[in-house]
Write a structure and sequence with these properties.
The chain has helices at residues 22-29, 46-65, 81-86, 91-112, 140-157, 170-183, 205-216, 230-237, 259-264, 273-286, 301-310, and strands at 16-17, 69-73, 119-125, 161-167, 187-191, 222-226, 247-252, 292-295, 314-319, 322-327. The chain is of the alpha/beta class and 328 residues long. The protein has a single domain, classed as TIM Barrel. Helix 5 (140-157) crosses helix 6 (170-183).
Length: 328
């Protein structure tokens, strides 16, 4: 049985952390193979499942230590049918992978949730195509049909919500929101932007939010920005458009490089975690309604620790695979 799905705890305020760049961490730091960036593929073996648990536990422990909430974002960004087909998954096997991912999040919540640190289980949904390129795009109805199977599996498994990350078009975001509503789940929509603060389609962030809200009767619980450096979108957030108040979450990249440059980069660019934390602090000072904080490509537990430190929440010291933290 999941948490009360309405309202979500993070809508009541207070800081909620989430994890960093799961795929880049598992590949570049842990040396694991992720075909098509599909972290969920690790769930097919006990060793892979253990690696995923170890990845999440350091973040969950960090959140509990600084008495912040935590959004357990499942490793299912690629667990939809087109990507499953590429990896050789049948429809039944893919549904099982989504169930197993949510079951892992339940295990983590049972181990780490505590008073003052509520933990929300979110089923992560990624774009049908490349996370950097909108391609030819889909209509909203096609997007709803495409994402509906995965979202239904996440709902049946006991997810509290869905988060659609790295959305490049409003049509796909609308489709995800409608599929989530049909499954009875709240949804957060996270857009990615280019270095100019606009979606890869060229649409402005505020306009994209307004389009999704209008088409879905404001079904998304909130919006986020992910897979872009803070300097790429800080100007877009500075607008006085009321729709930007709907943004509650940030999962920024560590690198200042553009998406095209990141695609060509031979090595991981982890940026400067301390600077990253200060950039989040500055953004929150300007936009205090934002309260769900994590990272995306190139970020890891060091970047989340730097965010906590910059906000005066915790001093975090890693010990092996686990994390210990003390109140500042």
């Amino acid at each position: 049985m999941s948490l009360d799905r309405s309202p979500l705890p993070q809508l009541g305020g207070g800081l909620f952390l989430t994890d960093g760049g799961i795929e880049t961490t598992l590949i570049f730091h842990d040396g694991l193979a992720l075909p098509y960036f599909a972290a969920f593929d690790l769930l097919k073996t006990p060793a892979g499942t253990a690696a995923l648990y170890a990845y999440y536990e350091r973040y969950a422990a960090m959140a509990r230590a600084c008495r912040a909430g935590f959004v357990l974002e499942s490793p299912t960004w690629r667990a939809s049918s087109d990507w499953g087909d590429k990896l050789g998954y049948s429809a039944a096997a893919l549904a099982a992978a989504n169930r197993n991912a949510i079951a892992l999040m339940w295990r983590l919540r049972a181990a780490f949730a505590a008073e003052g640190s509520p933990m929300v289980i979110s089923g992560c949904v990624g774009p049908r195509g490349d996370g950097y390129d909108p391609g030819s795009g889909m209509g909203a109805e096609e997007a709803s049909d495409y994402h509906g199977a995965q979202i239904a599996a996440l709902a049946r498994a006991g997810a509290d919500m869905v988060t659609a990350t790295t959305m490049t078009t409003t049509n796909e975001a609308i489709g995800v929101a409608r599929a989530a509503e049909a499954a009875g789940l709240p949804v957060a929509i996270s857009f990615t932007v280019e270095t100019d603060g606009r979606l890869p389609t060229g649409q402005g962030l505020a306009e994209a939010i307004e389009a999704v809200d209008q088409a879905t009767r404001h079904h998304p619980s909130y919006y986020m920005v992910n897979c872009a450096h803070p300097t790429h979108f800080d100007g877009a957030l500075a607008s006085d458009r009321a729709s930007l108040q709907r943004i509650r979450g940030l999962r920024a990249n560590a690198s200042r490089l553009s998406h095209a440059e990141l695609n060509e980069a031979p090595e991981l660019d982890a940026g400067d975690p301390s600077e990253f934390g200060q950039q989040y602090r500055a953004l929150l000072a300007q936009h205090p309604h934002i309260n769900v904080l994590g990272g995306c490509c190139g970020t890891d537990h060091r970047h989340l620790a730097a965010i906590c430190s910059a906000l005066g929440l915790a001093a975090v010291e890693e010990q092996g695979r686990g994390t210990t933290a003390a109140r500042a």
